[in-house]
Amino acid sequence: MPPRPALSARDRAARSRLLKLLASAQPLARAGLVTMARVCGKAGCRCAAGDKHVSLYLAARLGRQRQMIYIPADLEDQARALVETGRRVEELLEQISQSSLERLVARKERRRLERKPRR
Ligand SMILES: [Zn+2]
User: Fold this and answer.
1) C-alpha closest to that of 27 among 93, 95, 75
2) I need a labelling partner for 107 at 20 to 30 A (CA). Which of 8, 32, 77, 92 fits?
3) How many A from CA of 80 to the centre of ligand 1?
4) Which H or E run includes 46?
């Protein structure tokens, strides 16, 4: 088997950042942040007059089900951090995936050219 082509600087950087991020043991979530405005139904509440209660939710898969998880105001920063870290991990994974696929395609192409009979 021919030697594996060296990783690009960009790819090495992505792997190193991903490793550091995972090693830091920061919590992360693959989830989306959603803001919803709702009416609580209590008589006389300001929301009845249109000034709805705005709160943050995480749209996430919990077990097998997609759920909207209500986030109390004092946990909003934590929830945002989970999602942000999750996004960074996914971005880095995607970058590594892309360059791995590009290397595979390039390798296939080189092989095809080598096999072509010379004229
Ligand atoms: Zn209300």
Assistant:
1) 75
2) 92
3) 25
4) none
- What's the 37 CA to ligand 1 centre distance in angstroms? 10
Q: How far is the CA of 77 from the centre of ligand 1 (A)?
A: 23
Answer for the pair 111, 22: CB distance below 8 angstroms, yes or no: no
Helix (H), strand (E) at residue 71: strand 65-71
Confirm whether pTM is higher than 0.85.
Answer: no
Amino acid code (one letter) for 24: S
**Assigned token pair, 67:** 């759920």
Domain ranges of the chain: 9-113
The answer to whether residue 25 scores a pLDDT higher than 80 is: yes
How would residue 4 be classed by pLDDT, with cut points 50, 70 and 90?
Answer: low
* DSSP for residue 3: P
Residue 101 predicted with pLDDT over 70? yes
Q: How far apart are CA 47 and CA 8, in angstroms?
A: 55
Copy the structure tokens of residue 50: 């249109």
